[in-house]
Structure to design on (977 residues):
């Protein structure tokens, strides 16, 4: 008796589910057909391949909100965080979302590093570039009480005693690649210690467990007396750091301007891309956005999709050359 | 500092803090949803707030979320955060033996004491402590985590071999994904979904919440009405004497471990729990519903928040995802946390400190007022309660990374958890081994990079040696106790 | 198989699974690059863990065999689980629910209501009344959740 009521319960429950699956299957067919009128038709999903709170996430949210406020697109934009797997998770989400322009990705050149390292199953061919909305360059710093006051002194020391200084980097992350490009160009070698986040790098260098680390200029500025910048990776000097030379000035052909890069699936219709470009270009010129960028030592600028893609292609080749030396 | 408190007294701030703490408690208490998720999701709402308002709201959510986790850990054996895993060891058996109110009340008291003690350090000696914590490099991190792992083995209830096996299995499940020491795929067998590895939250929710729901589902529905206690809350003045030293010790351990960025509340709770057990006269009662177990874990995990805020506000170094989001909330308002924060935006720096204390007090008032009603949760119709929990688990593990892979992982670990429990392999060491081993491996390999492959460099690191010695002592302690006892017997 | 030997057979099954896991670790470790930046490299920890798992698995298995020889009576581990079918039913419902959301990309609201109806019915032992009650509860819960997520937090579930 008891047993039969029990199996009946399970059976009834599963029957309800089966019924539901049947009903539901009828549902979404209608929505698939009616696309390709005005873009956008529904809220646009911006996938950010990082946890919330970082620069890429914040910039995406700020621009999305500015666009919504001013009605530059007829539908809201919603940010979705998809951290993990060096971007593989985000790319999977993008593929899942379809290629009608309502699912886009806001990333930066870490994407290129993932490609250069052969992580994940994506390449530049999977994307159509919408454009860059500004970006920022990092500085290489040593501790304030370090014996080195200029980059030349550091290089001279490392050439005399190779691997005598410790550089805090996450192997296979931006700081590692930027440092390696500089090291290849200037002909020195450092020792590495694993530091996969800005927080780790700061912790290790301030505590004396590392000698050199890479930071966003704004991160350095917030630390004030603890650190000493030696070299800046922008093409030109940063107004906030007038005394810090660029690598190019010192004769090394290395620059890293990590852009806020907007990407869509490769088969996205051009009309949708253009609508997105129009909105983003207006947003990056907005005074409030400009204020945020300059306040965080970022440069606000607009680089349209093809130009951005060509730049990325060039950057990727440089990164692949570095990746070949470390793998 | 006083100015900061005065500023907080503005009704706007108070309301936000109240709302934040309340939301945090509710979200933290729901299995599947966590404080860091709540903070991440409310981040966009803070864009248009005044920065002080934004920070008060987020701090309230942070404190409330960690504290709320104890409710379901005790009542349902479903820790809301990894930091509450230890609380399930004794809290759940207490609830099972009809002492749910007592366990909750003790947990709340311990949380508040932990919060207030660590606040003292935060307000009083932040810069000095932060400088001290920064001295800790890879060797110290590695040995500290190693010590925690060794303590796991000691904690293992029942069979030692099953406890060790649980920890080793947990460690094995942490391996797939990107090897953080070299940035390359490991044990992913070519799958891009596996590149992210198994997420902490899906594993935690799966192993504890899902497997618990499935286990509960098989239990007969008891028609026995459980007596609802009508008396006042079961906390007495004498508790200050019995539990006081434990609370203070655990809070100090919690603050101190919380100071180290990236280590966090779960190790703090684990270390203070096993310390309490080792120093106890009745270590065998731990894990069977022993009150000091609840007290140790809950004081430590709340104290760890205060500890973690120290490097955050003095150096701008976040200790966890939650704190990284706090930094994000500040940078939106063009504020960079770091040593200059106290000069450039003292209202923020002191505001965080003041809000942390107030959030703890609000948490006390709210949870204290609600504890008797909260405890009724277990007496709700079980069919509804368990089903609703499942929905929250699905939504929660999806929302972390917007990925259904995480949901499937959660279900898989629910089944694995059920199987492990059936084979009497304990879940606590399983999940803690999962959490700790990636840190241990990364730090050990970082140490070896630092020393150019020379493992002997550890002997130049006094703190690392200290942790190593403590780890050895942890293993040897039961034997030492036995010998002492034998000697006493001989001499009398 | 004697009922009181259940625990030992369980332990042996556990040991077999653990050996399987260790094998997976060893196979995976074989494909990893050699150490590059420090002497341990990527493969050291998987190999070490595999060795530990094998030792512990052997320990469990030997103890189980010895225990069975000694024929020590042991209480059944699953003594109190009186409705194992309900666990299976809820698990099946959960899998169907997530599959509907993920693979089927079906809408969150009705699927949640159906899941709650199914799971509530299974857990309370059958009948159409609980199905309706829990279905309604599910609808309310899903409505509240998707309202909060999509209006305040801009997240679409499913």
């Amino acid at each position: 008796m008891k047993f039969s009521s029990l199996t009946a319960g399970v059976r009834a429950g599963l029957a309800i589910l089966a019924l539901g699956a049947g009903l539901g299957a009828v549902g979404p067919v209608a929505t698939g057909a009616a696309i390709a009128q005005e873009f956008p038709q529904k809220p646009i999903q911006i996938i950010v391949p990082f946890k919330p709170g970082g620069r890429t996430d914040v910039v995406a949210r700020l621009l999305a909100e500015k666009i919504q406020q001013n009605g530059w697109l007829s539908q809201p934009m919603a940010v979705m965080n998809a951290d993990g797997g060096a971007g593989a998770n985000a790319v999977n989400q993008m593929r899942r979302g379809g290629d009608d322009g309502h699912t886009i990705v806001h990333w930066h050149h870490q994407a290129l590093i993932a490609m250069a390292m052969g992580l994940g199953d994506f390449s530049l061919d999977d994307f159509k570039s919408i454009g860059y909305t500004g970006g920022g360059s990092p500085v290489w710093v040593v501790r304030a009480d370090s014996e080195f006051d200029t980059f030349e002194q550091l290089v001279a020391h490392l050439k005399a005693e190779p691997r005598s200084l410790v550089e805090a980097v996450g192997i296979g992350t931006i700081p590692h690649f930027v440092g390696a490009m500089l090291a290849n160009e200037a002909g020195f070698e450092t020792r590495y210690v694993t530091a996969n986040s800005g927080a780790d790098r700061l912790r290790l260098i301030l505590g004396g467990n590392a000698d050199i680390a890479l930071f966003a200029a704004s991160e350095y500025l917030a630390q004030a007396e603890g650190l000493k910048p030696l070299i800046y990776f922008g093409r030109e000097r940063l107004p906030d750091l007038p005394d810090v030379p660029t690598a190019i000035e010192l004769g090394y052909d290395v620059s890293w301007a990590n852009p806020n890069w907007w990407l869509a699936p490769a088969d996205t219709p051009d009309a949708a891309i253009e609508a997105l470009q129009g909105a983003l270009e207006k947003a990056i010129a907005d005074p409030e956005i400009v204020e945020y960028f300059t306040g965080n030592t970022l440069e606000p600028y607009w680089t349209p999709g093809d130009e951005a893609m060509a730049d990325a292609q060039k950057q990727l080749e440089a990164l692949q050359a570095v990746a070949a030396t470390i793998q | 500092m006083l100015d900061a408190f005065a500023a907080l007294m503005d009704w706007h701030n108070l309301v936000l803090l109240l709302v934040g703490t309340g939301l945090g408690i509710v979200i933290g208490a729901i299995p599947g949803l966590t404080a860091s998720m709540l903070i991440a999701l409310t981040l966009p709402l803070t864009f248009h707030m005044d920065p002080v308002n934004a920070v008060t709201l987020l701090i309230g959510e942070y404190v409330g979320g960690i504290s709320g986790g104890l409710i379901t850990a005790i009542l349902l054996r479903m820790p809301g955060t990894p930091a509450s895993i230890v609380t399930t060891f004794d809290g759940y058996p207490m609830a099972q033996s009809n002492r749910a109110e007592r366990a909750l009340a003790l947990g709340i008291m311990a949380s508040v004491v932990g919060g207030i003690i660590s606040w003292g350090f935060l307000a009083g000696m932040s810069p000095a402590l932060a400088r001290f914590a920064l001295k800790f490099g890879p060797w110290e991190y590695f040995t500290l985590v190693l010590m925690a792992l060794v303590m796991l083995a000691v904690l293992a209830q029942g069979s030692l071999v099953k406890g060790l096996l649980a920890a080793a299995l947990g460690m094995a499940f942490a391996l797939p994904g990107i090897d953080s020491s070299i940035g390359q795929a490991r044990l992913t067998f070519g799958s891009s979904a596996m590149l992210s590895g198994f997420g902490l939250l899906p594993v935690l929710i799966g192993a504890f919440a899902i497997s618990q729901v499935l286990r509960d589902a098989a239990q007969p529905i008891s028609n026995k009405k459980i007596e609802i206690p009508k008396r006042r809350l079961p906390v007495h003045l004498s508790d200050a004497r019995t539990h006081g030293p434990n609370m203070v010790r655990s809070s100090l351990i919690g603050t101190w471990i919380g100071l180290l960025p990236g280590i966090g509340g779960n190790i703090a709770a684990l270390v203070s729990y096993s310390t309490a057990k080792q120093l106890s006269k009745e270590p065998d009662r731990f894990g069977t519903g022993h009150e000091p177990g609840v007290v140790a874990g809950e004081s430590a995990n709340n104290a760890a928040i205060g500890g973690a805020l120290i490097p955050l506000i003095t150096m701008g170094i976040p200790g966890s995802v939650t704190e990284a989001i706090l930094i994000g909330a500040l940078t939106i308002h063009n504020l960079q946390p770091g040593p200059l924060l106290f000069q450039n935006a003292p209202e923020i720096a002191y505001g965080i400190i003041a809000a942390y204390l107030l959030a703890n007090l609000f948490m006390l008032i709210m949870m204290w007022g609600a504890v008797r009603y909260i405890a009724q949760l277990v007496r709700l119709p079980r069919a509804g309660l368990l089903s609703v929990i499942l929905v929250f688990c699905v939504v929660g593990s999806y929302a972390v990374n917007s990925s259904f892979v995480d949901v499937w992982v959660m279900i898989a670990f629910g089944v694995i958890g059920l199987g492990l429990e059936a084979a009497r392999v304990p879940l606590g060491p399983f999940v803690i081994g999962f959490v700790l081993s990636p840190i241990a491996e990364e730090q050990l390999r970082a140490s070896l990079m630092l020393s150019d492959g020379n493992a002997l460099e550890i002997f130049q690191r006094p703190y690392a040696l200290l942790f190593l010695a403590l780890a050895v002592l942890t293993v040897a302690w039961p034997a030492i106790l036995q010998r002492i006892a034998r000697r006493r017997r001989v001499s009398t | 198989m004697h009922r009181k030997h259940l625990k030992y057979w369980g332990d042996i099954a556990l040991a077999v699974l653990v050996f399987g896991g260790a094998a997976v670790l060893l196979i995976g470790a074989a494909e990893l690059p050699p150490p590059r930046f420090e002497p341990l490299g990527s493969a050291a920890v998987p190999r070490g863990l595999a060795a530990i798992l094998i030792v512990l698995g052997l320990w469990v298995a030997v103890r189980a065999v010895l225990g069975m020889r000694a024929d020590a009576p042991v209480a059944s581990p699953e003594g109190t689980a009186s409705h194992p079918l309900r666990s299976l039913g809820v698990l099946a419902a959960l899998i169907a629910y997530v599959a509907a959301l993920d693979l089927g990309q079906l809408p969150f609201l009705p699927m949640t209501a159906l899941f709650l109806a199914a799971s509530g019915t299974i857990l309370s032992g059958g009948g159409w009344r609980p199905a309706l009650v829990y279905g309604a509860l599910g609808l309310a819960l899903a409505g509240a959740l998707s309202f909060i997520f999509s209006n305040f937090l801009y997240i679409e579930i499913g």
